[in-house]
Amino acid sequence: MNRLTKMMVTSLIVLLLAGAIALVIVLNVTSNKNEGGAQSIDEIAEYSYETPEVTTDLNDGSFVRIQFQILTDGKKARKEVAKREFQIKNILIKELAEMNEEDFKSGLSALEDTLQVKLNEVMTEGNITEVYTTSKILQ
Q1: What is the per-residue pLDDT across 30-48, written as a single tens digit (0 to 9) for each?
Q2: Boundaries of domain holding 24
């Protein structure tokens, strides 16, 4: 083989290796973006905790029965939320005692946000990512 052929073969091998390395890097970067994104529905179901129904009175004498689905960021956090059920009830009773019927009707999102923030303050294993109201009855 002459010198020119050896140089062309070597250059071709270097270019192929550089392309393969670039492809691996690009595939890893795009797959990491999907991992950091939203949870799949299976993960949501696995990492969520359904609270028992809580019945309490509002500031104006009305009664409310409410239930939540609490989403966490992992299995350990879900187990911790289950253990903190008494704290969830305590936070709900305190928050609902300050609300009247109109506040309750229009401020359900604020109640969910408050529950999320206050639970995250006491959590040690993971975080609460979302709180959904799954059932509510106002009497």
Answers
A1: 655 545 556 678 878 888 9
A2: 1-37
Rounded to whole angstroms, what are the CA distances from 85 to 28, 39, 59, 90, 97? 40, 24, 23, 9, 18
| Distance, CA of 114 to CA of 105 (rounded, Å) | 16
Candidates 136, 134, 137; CA nearest to 50 is: 134
pTM: 0.68
User: 114 Cβ partners below 8 Å, 6+ apart?
Assistant: 91, 95
What residues pair up with 137 in beta bridges, in sequence order? Answer: 65
Same domain? For 74 and 130 the reply is yes
How far is Cα 49 from Cα 51, in angstroms, rounded to an integer?
6
DSSP string, 9-31: HHHHHHHHHHHHHHHHHHHHHHH
**AA identity, residue 132:** Y
